[in-house]
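Email to the structure team, subject: Cryptochrome DASH model.

Hi all, the expression group asked for a predicted structure before they design truncation constructs. Nothing fancy, just the tokens so they can compare against earlier work. One-line instruction: predict Cryptochrome DASH, return tokens.
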Amino acid sequence: MSTGLIWFENNLRVKDNKALFEACEKHEQVIAVYCFDPRKFKKTKYGFPKTGKFRAKFLIESIKNLQENLNQLNISLLIFLQKPEEIIPEIARNHKIEAIYFQEEWTTEEKQIIAALKKKLPTIDFQSFYTQFLFHPEDIAYGDFNEIPKVYTEFRKKCEQYVDVRKEIEIPKQKPESNRIKNTSKTPNLKELGLEDYQQDSRTAFSFKGGEDEAWKRIDYYFWKTTKLSEYKQTRNGLLGKDYSSKLSAWLANGSISAVSIFHQVKKFEHEITKNQDTYWLIFELIWRDFFKYTSLKHGNSIFKLSGILDKKLDWKFSIESLQQWINGETKEDFVNANINEIAATGFMSNRGRQNVNSFWAKELKQDWRAGAAYFESVLVDYDVHSNWGNWMYNSGVGNDPRDRKFNIKKQADLYDPDNQYVDTWLKK
Ligand SMILES: Cc1cc2nc3c(=O)[nH]c(=O)nc-3n(C[C@H](O)[C@H](O)[C@H](O)COP(=O)(O)OP(=O)(O)OC[C@H]3O[C@@H](n4cnc5c(N)ncnc54)[C@H](O)[C@@H]3O)c2cc1C
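Reply from the structure team: attached below.
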């Protein structure tokens, strides 16, 4: 009997998951694996953990839900707190695995893991799929990733003109019960990941809960129950409350829902409820998400370099005291402090807030932008390597912003928080 292994990473869903679907189509027996990689929970050189408590909790919830949904398909999800390249070879040998299915990744840390696995399992067939994009890399109108433009609008227009978003891939058919294997593995808790448990701050903009089912509940609420999508563009610069933007980022980041699924929900909404600038704008933002992924595909590790993808030498400083003040919300700007307090207390910050906080750190204080990006990587519930480092480069003058703008923080606060409601909420302890 042929056995395939689906190795989950940032594609934690059963719907529209080509890797899972292919594994189920090609093999009579399918086993699923997820590894909480200890390297992702270690401390960075700045002293904070690479993955902080908000994202870790969201991930734990996501894995629990994935396990339930796979159970419905009679597929056992084995969960480990171990490096993939250490445990997967053992499973592959024990279960006579013929092929491993996974989401294609291209940043160095992920590539190293895949290379180590391949080295240890030279006879196994590795099948990877780009399942994180809106516009599939095989469909874009560029012959080579090197042709991806530096300017977003150029990229967007060409994609909109020439690329059709693919159809969603259905949930695989249920396997027979005999597909289940003995599974004593357990999802680790926050303590086992070296993190403290916490109570949610009552001021939080949104109570994020991980898992594919929760992502679809949010779609149901934001699109269908409240039709908030029909005013998305007008409200997306908001700072308080759960409805000013879609809040889909955390589920998108760990792949609990695909950009393709969201796109088709927008199209359905436009067909059944209303079609306007606001509904289009959610797609516009999903294209930004793609753009940063294509930027990192093109530029590789340059997205982590001080001089960025522009290879621009600027006069950067770095002091650990400044970093601490910025993180503690003790800068001279109340609007920056309020935003940084929000992210520290909840793991979330609006897009408007992120732009201002980034601009203040990199362009006002001229501090090494990578330290700010690393802090966001630690605390964000929705951290995505390409979106985070891409946006940070953009707002720090070493990325894709052709205008190299600096935010006037006071003006921004007057415009987006005219009654100080936001600042008052987040400056109070
Ligand atoms: C400095 C900085 C760091 C950021 N880091 C991240 C990150 O780690 N992960 C992340 O998902 N987003 C990041 N963003 C982008 C954006 O702020 C968040 O996606 C957004 O605030 C999440 O809220 P939402 O889902 O309600 O967004 P919505 O406004 O509802 O947007 C819908 C979706 O579009 C995508 N999107 C929207 N804006 C952007 C953008 N500027 N860049 C890329 N994708 C976008 C997201 O997937 C988002 O979920 C960052 C922005 C800045 C300025």
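The chain has a mean pLDDT of 96. The chain has three domains: 1-131, 133-165+213-299, 305-427. Ping us if the truncation boundaries need rechecking.
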